[in-house]
Amino acid sequence: MERRRFVAASATLLGFAGLSPAALAELLATPRQSRGPFYPAELPLDQDNDLVTVAGGSGMAKGEVTQIAGRVVDGKGRPVPEARIEIWQCNAFGRYHHPRDHRDRPLDPNFQGYGQFVTGPDGGYRFRTIRPVPYPGRAPHIHFAISGPDFAPLVTQMYVAGAPENDSDLLLNSIRDRKARESLIVSLERGPQGDDLVGRFDIVLSRDGPFERRG
Question: Domain 2-204 belongs to what architecture?
Answer without folding.
Answer: Sandwich (2.60)
